[in-house]
Amino acid sequence: MIGRPWDGTTWKLLYGSAFRVPNAYERYYAGVGQLANPDLQPEQIRTYEAVWEQDFGSRRRASLSYFQNRIKNLISQSVVAGGRQFLNQERVRTEGAELHGKAELTRTWSGHAGYILQSTRVQGGDRLSNSPTHVANLGLSRRLAWWDADVAFDSFLVSARITNDGGHLPTTGLMSLHARLWPLQNRLSVYGGVHNVFDTDHRVSGSSEHVQSAIPQDGRNFNLGLEYRFGGRSS
Predict the structure, then answer these.
(1) Tens digit of pLDDT per residue, the chain (235 long)?
(2) By C-alpha distance, which of 23, 27, 166, 127 is closest to 87?
(3) Of the candidates 91, 90, 88, 53, the residue with the CA atom closest to the CA atom of residue 69
(4) CB–CB of 35/25 below 8 Å?
(5) What is the DSSP pairing of strand 134-144 with strand 161-162?
(6) CA-based diameter of the chain, in Å?
(7) How far apart, in whole angstroms, are the C-alpha atoms of residue 3 and residue 11?
(8) Exposure on the CB side of residue 111, measured as CA atoms within 13 A
(9) Which of 15, 40, 91, 209 has the greatest number of beta carbons closer than 10 A?
(10) 3-state SS record for the chain
């Protein structure tokens, strides 16, 4: 449901549902330390969200939302007698709020910022592994008209998380730089970027089948490419 009570304001009430059927590996694979479970049932999720979007003129916009996600029959790999097995053993509920803003600061500068506060817990009150309470992002971009180029930086922060074995992952912040040039009348572009600029140690939680409880992610890395658009540059 979408309502527009007055100019520049939009209210939304959103509902969705989905399911995921267990794959062949989760149901039937059996090996050393791994037990099959052909009776696995599909995961199910229901989502609820209320959103307030507000325009501040034609160049600035903000949104505030409250959301809930409810998962039933979550498929998890668990330690059982005889090894490990995928089971429908958990109900998970996520509840939180998100604030996001986007603005054209000047004719050449624009920016965006966002913050999410959330709680994700399994039935019984335990926090879900690899699920942060705080997530934030901030970005700035600039248009360089004399070079026909765009440059931007994006930063991302995720708060501490627990691992699958009960350990802890620290708060982590990452930053990336991007640039794109249009040397051939809006058809050919050259783009590149540096991801994880400061080579930050970044890890995610492993599952019960992994040797590591915390799996290292990519350090500083680069990309460079060419792109040709036959229809020309989009507005």
Answers:
(1) 999 999 999 999 999 999 999 999 999 999 888 899 999 999 999 999 999 999 998 899 999 999 999 999 989 888 888 888 999 977 899 999 999 999 999 889 999 999 999 999 887 778 888 899 999 999 999 998 877 899 999 999 999 999 888 889 999 999 999 999 988 767 888 999 999 999 999 998 888 778 888 999 999 999 999 988 887 665 5
(2) 27
(3) 91
(4) no
(5) unpaired
(6) 68
(7) 5
(8) 10
(9) 40
(10) CEECCCCCEEEEEEEEEEEECCCHHHHHCCECCEECCCCCCCEEEEEEEEEEEEECCCCEEEEEEEEEEEEEEEEEEEEECCEEEEEEEEEEEEEEEEEEEEEECCCCEEEEEEEEEEEEEECCCCECCCCCCEEEEEEEEEEECCCCEEEEEEEEEECCEECCCCCEECCEEEEEEEEEEEEECCCEEEEEEEECCCCCCCEEECCCCCCCCEEECCCCEEEEEEEECCCCCCC
For residues 135 and 142, the answer to whether their CB atoms sit within 8 Å is no
Between CA 137 and CA 211 the distance in angstroms is: 31
Question: Could you identify the residue written with the tokens 């999410």?
Answer: 116
Q: Which pTM was predicted?
A: 0.83
- Reference 67, options 43, 46, 44; nearest CA is 46
Separation between Cα atoms, residue 202 and residue 173, nearest integer Å: 8
Write out the two tokens for 84: 């490990």
Residue type at 86 in one-letter notation: F
